[in-house]
Inverse folding.
């Protein structure tokens, strides 16, 4: 794994680049570790409180440790009318976790999201930001079995 | 008339949007060439007289917006690719089919306002579009198509409010995406405090065609006061849920019944929400309306982003609006009180109504709250959040009343 300091330093010349740095950190760790927030604050010249404020403002950034695969279930209106609630229940049942939790083996984290802009094939989930289309409750086990 | 009119999407799937050469073969970058030969005043006048109005939802004349930019040593061109309105994916489609037109449009704007640097703010949900755009920029730079105009892509991180232009600017600067007080408007003091033009993807991508074919030609397409084409995304209970590009005088009923192939499973129509989740719900008697900005406004609706969510006769409007009220509570940035508290209370009252625990007094309260939010919220999010509620109480009031306590 790349060192968090190297990741942050590689973006230090980008004006206002702290969000880009957080994205880069998440690509490596799937969340933003506390020491990385402190480091990013220093590199981008903001207070630790401001850096933490940014990290916790955006729904795609997380300061909590997450699983290897982050499943996001869209629950905006087009997915809602297409049956998002039933899909959420099916994923929760299949993984044995509730929304916001991570499986004991650290493999899956389940989150809710608003529209991901793939409304041609609702309901939609994303797994590590890759969209999966036309999901239904019965298809959930098969879809998730593809993630090793 | 029930045909699409493809302008931005004419070469969809026939050219590789990453490759500037592909785009040049179908006439690309001729608009920018022409823009560079014009004097700046004439260029802005050309865009103004084409009648092109912002496609992000606000409908402001693009050339007019540019004309407010004062002289300054550094200025920026910013593209809003944060499309977060549920049911909307037209900007993604424009990038995936014709990204070079967006780059060319931004460079045309750069020529008009004398800016050398553009930023594309792409929503965090589209990392694959960021990748595509970076390749497209690289290719355009490699063939020299953009000249000395540079474009950098910045990625958002899942905040609907960043579609508001000043919140977007805050986010590019690396801050929480909270809207600024206006004035000053971004045209005067925007990104890092300097004059900045923020336009939507679809607005920029129309510019090359306006330059090559002429303002007069563009102004003659579609509705006279909101000319050109509009890319729509159709979702919900229709047979053909996909994207279309139509002239702006296209009728809403034709979007649903001709392009959309009508209601799924032989059911009947109940309502359509146009413009995304902040849009009004439109009943059947208003379907014979043109989709353009002003015609939609005249029936108390908005074209907005061009999302079209169709609901069949079996759908529970109150349940859907309750879900929508959760969306706004979640997406409110919390900076201003009318929105932070208002979206929370709207969701609370909607849940009460949906659960059959409300009375007529709750309906009156939510209508009063809606009025306060529309007038007092700092940005468009809080101002528009109650629209789905008020429009459905107006047109589908019986669905609310049958869930009230005294009728239960």
């Amino acid at each position: 794994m790349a060192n968090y300091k190297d990741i942050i330093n590689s973006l230090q010349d980008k004006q206002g680049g702290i969000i880009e740095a957080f994205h880069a950190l998440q690509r490596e760790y799937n969340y933003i570790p506390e020491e990385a927030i402190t480091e990013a604050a220093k590199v981008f010249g903001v207070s630790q409180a401001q850096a933490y404020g940014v990290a916790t403002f955006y729904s795609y950034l997380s300061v909590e440790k997450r699983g290897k695969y982050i499943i996001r279930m869209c629950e905006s209106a087009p997915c809602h009318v297409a049956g998002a609630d039933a899909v959420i229940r099916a994923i929760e049942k299949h993984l044995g976790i509730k929304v916001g939790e991570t499986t004991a083996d650290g493999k899956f984290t389940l989150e809710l999201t608003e529209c991901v802009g793939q409304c041609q094939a609702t309901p939609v989930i994303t797994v590590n930001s890759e969209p999966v289309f036309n999901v239904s409750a019965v298809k959930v086990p098969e879809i998730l079995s593809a993630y090793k | 008339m029930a045909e699409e009119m493809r302008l931005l999407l004419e070469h969809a799937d026939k050219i590789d949007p990453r490759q500037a050469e592909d785009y040049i073969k179908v006439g690309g970058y001729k608009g920018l060439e022409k823009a560079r030969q014009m004097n700046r005043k004439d260029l802005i006048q050309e865009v103004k007289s084409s009648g092109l109005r912002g496609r992000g939802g606000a409908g402001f004349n693009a050339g007019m917006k540019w004309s407010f930019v004062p002289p300054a040593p550094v200025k920026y061109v910013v593209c809003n690719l944060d499309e977060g309105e549920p049911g909307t994916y037209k900007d993604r489609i424009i990038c995936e089919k014709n990204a070079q037109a967006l780059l060319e449009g931004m460079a045309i704007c750069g020529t008009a306002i004398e800016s050398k640097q553009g930023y594309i703010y792409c929503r965090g949900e589209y990392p694959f579009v960021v990748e595509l755009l970076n390749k497209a920029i690289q290719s355009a730079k490699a063939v020299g198509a953009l000249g000395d105009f540079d474009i950098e892509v910045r990625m958002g991180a899942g905040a609907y409010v960043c579609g508001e232009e000043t919140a977007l600017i805050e986010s590019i600067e690396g801050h929480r995406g909270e809207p600024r007080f206006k004035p000053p408007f971004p045209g005067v003091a925007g990104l890092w405090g300097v004059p900045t033009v923020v336009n939507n993807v679809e607005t920029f991508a129309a510019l090359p065609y306006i330059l090559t074919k002429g303002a007069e030609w563009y102004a003659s397409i579609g509705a006279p006061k909101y000319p050109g084409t509009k890319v729509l995304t159709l979702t919900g209970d229709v047979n053909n849920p996909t994207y279309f590009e139509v002239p702006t005088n296209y009728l809403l009923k034709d979007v649903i019944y001709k392009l959309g192939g009508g209601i799924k499973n032989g059911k009947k129509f109940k309502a359509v929400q146009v413009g995304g989740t902040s849009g009004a719900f439109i009943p059947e008697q208003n379907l014979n309306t043109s989709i353009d900005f002003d015609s939609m406004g005249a029936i108390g609706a908005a074209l907005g982003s061009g999302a079209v969510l169709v609901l069949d006769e079996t759908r529970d409007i109150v349940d859907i609006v309750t879900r929508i009220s959760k969306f706004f509570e979640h997406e409110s940035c919390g900076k201003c009180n009318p929105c932070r508290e208002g979206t929370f209370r709207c969701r609370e009252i909607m849940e009460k109504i949906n659960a059959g625990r409300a009375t007529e007094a709750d309906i009156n309260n939510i209508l009063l709250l809606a009025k306060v939010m529309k007038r007092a919220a700092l940005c468009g999010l809080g101002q528009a959040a109650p629209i789905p509620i008020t429009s459905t109480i107006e047109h589908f009031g019986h669905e609310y009343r049958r869930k009230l306590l005294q009728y239960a």
Remarks:
- Residues 20-220 of chain B form a domain with the Rossmann fold fold (CATH 3.40.50.11540).
- The radius of gyration of chain B is 21 Å.
- The CA atoms of residues 24 and 314 of chain B lie 49 Å apart.
- Chain B has a mean pLDDT of 97.
